[in-house]
Amino acid sequence: MLEGLGSPASPRAAASTSVVGSSGPAACPPPSAPRCPESPVPRRGGMRASVPQKLAETLSSQYGLIVFVAGLLLLLAWAVHAAGVGKSDLLCFLTALMLLQLLWMLWYVGRSSAHRRLFRLKDTHAGAGWLRGSITLFAVITIILGCLKIGYFIGFSECLSATEGVFPVMHAVHTLLQVYFLWGHAKDIIQSFKTLERFGVIHSVFTNLLLWANGVLNESKHQLNEHKERLITLGFGNITTVLDDHTPQCNCTPPTLCTAISHGIYYLYPFNIEYQILASTMLYVLWKNIGRKVDSHQHQKMQFKSDGVTVGAVLGLTALAATIAVVVVYLIHIGRSKTKSESALIMFYLYAITLLMLMGAAGLAGIRIYRIEEKSLDESKNPARKLDSDLLVGTASGSWLISWGSILAILCAEDHPRYTWYNLPYSILVMVEKYIQNLFIIESIHREPEKLSEDIRTLRVVTVCNGKPVASSCLKSGGVAGDVAPRGRDMPPAAKGNVCMREGCGKEEEKQEESSWGGSPSPVRLPRFLQGNAKRKVLRNIAAFLFLCNISLWIPPAFGCRPEYDNGLEEIVFGFEPWIIVVNLAMPFSIFYRMHAAASLFEVYCNI
Amino acid sequence: MLEGLGSPASPRAAASTSVVGSSGPAACPPPSAPRCPESPVPRRGGMRASVPQKLAETLSSQYGLIVFVAGLLLLLAWAVHAAGVGKSDLLCFLTALMLLQLLWMLWYVGRSSAHRRLFRLKDTHAGAGWLRGSITLFAVITIILGCLKIGYFIGFSECLSATEGVFPVMHAVHTLLQVYFLWGHAKDIIQSFKTLERFGVIHSVFTNLLLWANGVLNESKHQLNEHKERLITLGFGNITTVLDDHTPQCNCTPPTLCTAISHGIYYLYPFNIEYQILASTMLYVLWKNIGRKVDSHQHQKMQFKSDGVTVGAVLGLTALAATIAVVVVYLIHIGRSKTKSESALIMFYLYAITLLMLMGAAGLAGIRIYRIEEKSLDESKNPARKLDSDLLVGTASGSWLISWGSILAILCAEDHPRYTWYNLPYSILVMVEKYIQNLFIIESIHREPEKLSEDIRTLRVVTVCNGKPVASSCLKSGGVAGDVAPRGRDMPPAAKGNVCMREGCGKEEEKQEESSWGGSPSPVRLPRFLQGNAKRKVLRNIAAFLFLCNISLWIPPAFGCRPEYDNGLEEIVFGFEPWIIVVNLAMPFSIFYRMHAAASLFEVYCNI
Hints:
Chain A has 608 residues and is an all-alpha fold.
């Protein structure tokens, strides 16, 4: 989880890296000492904190974890109705955490604007525009949710403690300032006062994670209650169906308004949950970037072009429309009667099986295209991208757990109503589709955008260092292929010094050298219809389709269409409580997976 | 969790990294093209798998996770007595996994010995001697455990399924071959057939993790049953105390022998658990190393010297003796009567508080010594070390969770018997001590051994590349300070080509250059009594003391002395089931933490 921030190499160390492997026809020309006169003298101790990097990291991460487990325990205590621990204790704790984060953010923003003229390093990969856009959207809904909660508090003010009124107000303020903070500073690479800032950022990460866990818990309790109500309607008296009710013990003054508000709150929770987790991932990347030495990587500006993706978009939008229809029908039918429930389940499974098969096929096609055009990946250091990959695989495990549960239940159950058999292909497809999709996304985000590769070839022969042409490939091979040279002139000195120390240009380099220096251009074995723009178009269609499908598959579980509950088979095999615990633990990750995959696919789409 | 293996840079790419930051007095001399004639021509495609590194990693890690969650679900099903899932299903699954791993290991070992003459890269940091030693010790005990289980099966053979006899036999064979495998191949850096080998290694990692989880579950069930028996003795009828009994429904032929065997099994489980987790960490490092490009890092041979650590050793051995005494008394007294239980608890808390305070003080002293002598850390890439740090922080979270639970319970409980107050300082100290100890260990394992730093200074001015002295610091600054030059002549070509591409020599480099090139040797500000050998002696005493203390603190929870159960307060506040679930989930990590910290401290001790 916690990783060394790596590569703290001084400019000079890299500069003197010059043992040449010179035998063989493809060797580099001997470097003719291409000096860049304005490259920086490292400031003596300027970048060094009083505590070494690794230690400061451990100090802060341990602090964050301790705060986090404390919060988790309070959440657990509330969830299990622990004696003496009320909701107000939990809210007090969360409010205190938010207040602390607010103060820290204010200090940081104030300090930053005071030192505005100082050159600040930025990680161009972090806090992408679309990410900040979507977080703003979710934040707006979170603030609306806050307003509804305040209304709820006013309605029930007789019998609610003051903390339940303070919490939403504080949460709204916190959301506002945090979005402002993320817009301005998500790309920062903090270099000064590292220890203090590290504590602030990690505190923010775990505060958001706890707010996420709080949202998830509220949502789960709500879903569970709805499920129990359905069971009661269907007449299952044998399962322990005590509603876990947290509604206040007094009357709300305008009753209809209150009911509307309570309902509204639960429709907005999924967005709040996404907001919190997105914020914490952005802050985590900020934390990983503290004290990092980066090369000023020229990040290709992402472009959103909508031409030529008609097929993907139409198919995706059809899927989206179908999903909404299915969810509405499902929610109307489920729990009304046994036959209606069963038909709703069968409808859902058939819909999901079709969609998952299409998605799997699209993913496979994408991977196949990548495999035909053999090209090695950019494996340079990039905390934002690494987090994306890890989250994809990690959160997919949540739904794999649920799927295995369903499969096991089907295999072990004594009698199988007809609808349960649809569950088997559905569960298997959920696993397979995520496996394939992760491969596709991870390969996509590790490929360099096409345009850059072109640039490299152009820049190969003559590389310009400080205006003078130098017959050497130094700049190129130091940074990741093609990232640096175009900005040679206007690069800030601090970044420039670090240019030659990036790892990871290896294979790409090697391959290109084989073709350009060795004189044998490697044959591109793509079928003609898959070359150049056509290939790009196919990939973009796939990405667009998968993007819309992931949005589609996010909707059902987020808004209460959970066949894992309603199916009933798993509850019989594992027992009601164990299965509910498994689903409630794994489902939030499964839901987050869809939104995160959609976000990654959007990025993939823009980069193709 | 899953991280890019990074730095796949070709030798040539690094060789051409030669932009020089030349302004300023401390700049490197211009590199005079120091070629090493025997450095390798990269074999065309020789090191490249058909699938890119990152993709192969994702392919295999996803496979591993899917197998793992399937196993977890079977374990859960068995634990909650799911309908239709018996112990034999679980054991079948585990046996199949072990068989698969066995076949893979045989294939790998066979292939390795067939290609023995090929040069093989090794990661000198992985699979240290003491690690292999301790794994062998634990493996021997695991095999004894296997024999006892076979005896148990024979005794109850009438009513046990065949799988319960096959499983221990297979487990013993698996253990034997795996230890042999780890002795011979834990240091391997696999470069060929990467995809197939990646699947094999990740399969082995997760097989061992599942065997670990299986051991933990058995042990937890046993502990829980013992706890429930005590509660029944003490007359707590209000808590649901249904024994979760898995003893067979028939009689064992020689009854006394059978009882002895059942008891023996539970005393050996803790060692089996440690064996499985150790094996999986070693295999994980092997997996992380697949396809890695390393510099041939000269690893200083660790030396175990026992002179001059009398104080630490005596204090530590005293702690160990005291622990054993306390555990014996505790286990005799607990659950006999209310007063005896309380006195046992008070005794345990007083003992633990004393020990933890001493350990915290020792850790602080160690950190203080490091802080006085300001020295930046070696942050080069090292999967084994990174895993060590992550595990320390990650597994400590388990006990932080339990500690917060205790603290919350004390704060929220309605009435406090006298002995519960001792729980408060104990829980706080558990958190603080782990926080401090982690800082000490992580800083220690990131410091270079003293001797190496000396070497660097000697090697600074003249670096020999292929026998010819070159006035350049190329070799040195490319690799991590001082790791390469001494082996310049006899280095294998593949390793040599990669020499100049390691990241992470930065700060150390910079600092040394300031002192050696800038002409101002940095003042060492250590008090005289803490210089050189004296300082080393103090640090070694601290490490020895902490090592023995961690072994001491491993014993109580591993052998059934768990005040978190017996204390009773948490169970009242959280409820019996929720608290038992929390403890059973967190305790295995807490126990593993102690053993892992002890292992790390042993390494620290040998390196000081």
